[in-house]
Write a structure and sequence with these properties.
Length: 347
């Protein structure tokens, strides 16, 4: 909480000063436990770094942070660009901090390395929230693979929770498989939609309806209100066609206006109902345990992949076999076996 009375400028200059300074693992952990935003940002920068010594230090920090009990809600938010994600997060975030919550906003944007800077979670998109002492906004980590980006976001969630953030909002624009990645790291998954000229279900990505715990029709204001109500009926009908969720929750369809701040509180009340419902039936904890196990398995896979790929023999043999495949000298499957045989012999 040490930073709570500071202005954003204080925080920014502190972050700049800290960037230059090497801090011990214990100092970082203590800073995070104190709710110091600059220290939290520094720890996230370490875990996002490609340097081995940085990631080792970040791992040590995360391990120590795990000792701290937390009581958070992790909410995933997706929707096409322009649907109003940042406006929604800004309004919801402000409503929550006004009630005494600490809100962290993270983003998973697999295109951020291509566009040289994230299009999500950008501070300029959430100006009011960015100035709020009880909010922490972090743009998407950049990375070459969605798996890598997602893993860093998961680790950042843990650090934010250790720093006392009890509401974690994870935003994604839904490029490629990023919705699946975010779904696998949150307790509740919210799909933001716009009402259109009738055929609301058109163009909706396969699988996204199954993942959603709720659909909120945003921009339900002015002349759009009537369209929004029609869209709600259409989505409710469509949701009925899906099999019930294992946790017994029936996905809800709501409407809201991020700009006029209507319906936002109802959505939050619904999220809380969901959490209560899932805590009662044990699914909340079970889901997090399952997510932890999946993260472990995915991380192991990624480490194995990296371990092999960085070996010189792997690179040269792979290039040789690729040429043989091109010349139809060998089948791709047998080539894969030969490559693995060669590498494992070296171990
Ligand atoms: P994002 O790309 O999904 O993050 O969308 P933004 O939050 O940047 O919003 C895109 C545009 O829609 C902006 O011009 C917003 O002002 C506008 N907008 C967002 N929410 C609402 C809303 O509830 N009602 C109306 N009328 N406009 C909105």
């Amino acid at each position: 909480m040490a930073d709570d009375n500071k202005t954003p400028l204080d925080t920014i200059s502190k972050i700049k000063a800290l960037r230059k300074k090497e801090l011990s693992t214990d100092a970082l952990v203590q800073g995070i436990f104190d709710g110091n935003k600059a220290m939290l940002a520094k720890a996230i920068t370490l875990l996002e770094s490609k340097r081995v010594d940085h990631s080792e230090k970040a791992n040590a920090v995360i391990e120590k942070c795990l000792s701290r009990p937390t009581n958070s809600i992790r909410l995933g938010i997706t929707g096409v660009p322009g649907v109003g994600k940042s406006s929604f997060i800004e309004t919801l975030g402000k409503t929550l901090t006004d009630k005494g919550n600490k809100v962290a906003v993270l983003a998973v944007d697999p295109t951020s390395s291509l566009s040289k800077g994230s299009i999500l979670g950008d501070k300029t998109r959430m100006e009011t929230l960015a100035k709020d002492p009880n909010a922490f906004i972090r743009p998407s980590p950049s990375g070459t693979s969605l798996g890598g980006v997602a893993q860093k976001t998961r680790e950042s969630i843990m650090l934010c929770e250790a720093a006392g953030y009890n509401v974690i909002l994870v935003e994604t624009v839904g490029v490629g498989q990023s919705e699946i990645a975010v779904h696998s790291m949150v307790d509740f998954f919210l799909l933001l939609k716009l009402s259109g000229a009738g055929d609301e279900l058109q163009g909706i990505k396969r699988g996204i309806m199954e993942m959603a715990d709720a659909i909120a029709i945003n921009k339900a204001d002015g002349s759009n209100l009537e369209h929004a109500e029609l869209a709600m009926t259409e989505f409710s009908r469509a949701l009925h066609l899906y099999p019930p969720k294992v946790n017994g929750w029936t996905p809800k369809v709501m409407k809201c206006s991020a700009v006029e701040n209507t319906g936002i509180k109802d959505i939050w009340d619904m999220v809380q109902d969901f959490v209560e419902h899932n805590k009662e039936n044990g699914f909340f904890e079970k889901n997090r345990q399952q997510q932890n196990k999946n993260w472990f398995l995915q991380t192991v896979d990624e480490c194995i992949r990296q371990f092999f790929h960085q070996k010189e023999t792997f690179k040269t043999e792979q290039a040789k076999l690729l040429a043989e495949i091109e010349e139809h000298k060998i089948s791709p499957f047998y080539a894969a076996k030969l490559l693995l045989d060669k590498i494992t012999k070296e171990l």
